[in-house]
Design a protein that fits this description.
- The chain has about 160 residues and is mainly alpha-helical.
- It has 7 helices and 3 strands, in the order αααβααββαα.
- Strands 1-3-2 form a 3-stranded antiparallel sheet.
- Strand 2 and strand 3 form a beta hairpin.
- It is elongated, with a radius of gyration of 20 Å.
């Protein structure tokens, strides 16, 4: 005779592990880790996730440091530290802003644009892997739904406040 173990009862804080934010965060962590792994295999092993936080907010024609910090929900000092690191890697350069000599604009270097192209390829490959794992139908529903949900972020920004604060 086989004895069955009782079904484990959920603990009072089980919600902490299974809530939407935790699941989404874990999915983002896995996705970004895969992208960085692909970047390393493409010869960009020095790039870390914080560097991506700078480059994802940097316009191709260049962006002011204060705007980069605002987009990334960081202080100017923290963004300047990331810029220093990316400058040391040869990805970006700081220049005097043509419209305001007191401000600095950051732009991609030629090497930074090459890095960006490799990053784009890595993201596309990671996306293909995601689709292969969860299926195209589920991926379409997921991405459309999350797109609508994420679009609400702009409507949350009111009077200089953001959802991240």
């Amino acid at each position: 005779m086989t004895t069955l173990s009782p079904t484990p009862r959920p603990t009072r804080d089980a919600w902490r592990l299974g809530n939407a934010g935790r699941i989404l965060g874990n999915a983002v962590t896995r996705f970004e880790a895969r992208v960085l792994e692909l970047m390393a295999s493409a010869g960009h092993a020095d790039t870390r996730l914080p560097h991506v936080n700078l480059t994802r907010h940097l316009d191709l024609e260049g962006t002011r440091i204060t705007e980069l910090a605002r987009r990334a929900h960081m202080t100017n000092a923290a963004m300047t530290e990331l810029i220093d690191q990316c400058e040391a890697l040869g990805l970006v350069v700081r220049e005097v802003d043509a419209s305001d000599k007191r401000a600095r604009t950051v732009r991609f270097t030629d090497a930074g644009r090459e890095w960006l192209a490799a990053f784009g390829k890595a993201v596309k490959k990671a996306e293909r892997e995601l689709l292969a794992e969860i299926g195209p139908e589920a991926a379409e529903v997921l991405l459309q739904g999350l797109g609508r949900y994420a679009g609400a972020v702009e409507s949350i920004r009111v009077k200089g406040r953001t959802a991240a604060r």
